[in-house]
Structures are given as C-alpha cells and as structure tokens.
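Human: We require from you a protein record containing the residue sequence and its fold in token form, and nothing else.

Assistant:
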Amino acid sequence: MNYIELIEEVRAELLQVVNQRCDDMIQMYQNGDPYNRSEIRSRECCLGRTSPSMLKGKRPVSVTFASGETVETPTWKKAVQTILKHCNRQPDMHERLMQLRGKVFGRQRTILGKDPAGMDVPIQIDKNLYFEAKFDTEALLTMMEKKVLEPVGYDFSGIVIQYTEKKPAISESLESVQEEALEEEQSGGMTLS
C-alpha cells in the first residue's frame, strides 16, 4: 500500500467518525435530549488499521467480524480471545496456530503455547492452545496481531472493535477484575463459551 492510499484510508475513517458524531447530535436534538460531550458513546475501529496505542484507556464493547457475527467483549482479554478463537475455527488457521505454538516468545514468557504452564495470564483458545494475556491493552493487541495473526496469515482487516471512550467507574472496574479473577480460578485459564 502506498502512502497516499494510507492517507485516504485515514481520511475515510475520520469522516466516518465525524459523520457518526453529527448523526448522534442530530438524533439527540430531535429527541429533545441535551447534548453532553462527556457521555459514554460507543466508537469503533478496524483492527490492523488503528494503532493499538489509540485504544489505551478505552473499554471494549464488542467485536464484529467481516461475516457480520458480533460477540460482546467487556474486556480486552475477551476481545483477543474471541478473535483468536474465530481464527482457530478455520481448519487451515488451526493447523498453522498449532504449528506456531511454542515458537512465539515475548521477553520473558511464551506467547503462544500448548499448555498454560509458564504463562502468567493464559487464555485458552483451544485444547492445547493458549495465549499469554498479561499485557496492557497496546501490548496485548500488538502481540496478537504481530506475533500470531500475521505469521499465520489470518486476514483481520475486516474485524471491527466497538469500544467506549470513557474508562468504567471504579466500582465497575473492580467488578470486572473480580469476574476475571473468578473465571481464571475456576477454569485454570480464561475460556469463552
């Protein structure tokens, strides 16, 4: 892709955001609701076209695949798990993921392995397939894209992540952390039904 094509893609994404914000304001005006800039609003970005650093401090809502399938993902770990499970459901991708496990490393840990041993926060993708998730949002998404999805040749350009601009209230954050800790205790790693 050349530089001008990249700029045009960015322009299209920005216009989409501006149009959505204006549509929201018009809808609020027509409903008689006051416009409040600090309201929590759902936004979206295309995976691979948005820098993971732009998602720091954001809260995921759902992941929508190119097929139109949407899955609610209240945490970044669940968003990553959902994407990796979707990739793994394709037989050719499953085979590539299985061949890649044990060969992808971070600075100190295995990123993709066949068992959760040696991982701090493993999320289960399949039987004998785990992904290390002890990273901040930016690193988590970067590891998934650069260390796993790109090497196996999975096209994630059509995946859209919906997120909210605001961080959750402290009580919601605590509930989310408690939920994740309970899930990990019960399953020996994160699983998605």
The first strand starts at residue 42 and ends at 46. The beta strands are 42-46, 59-64, 70-72, 104-105, 110-113, 122-126, 129-132, 160-164. Residues 3-31 form the longest helix (29 residues). The CA atoms of residues 44 and 162 lie 4 Å apart.
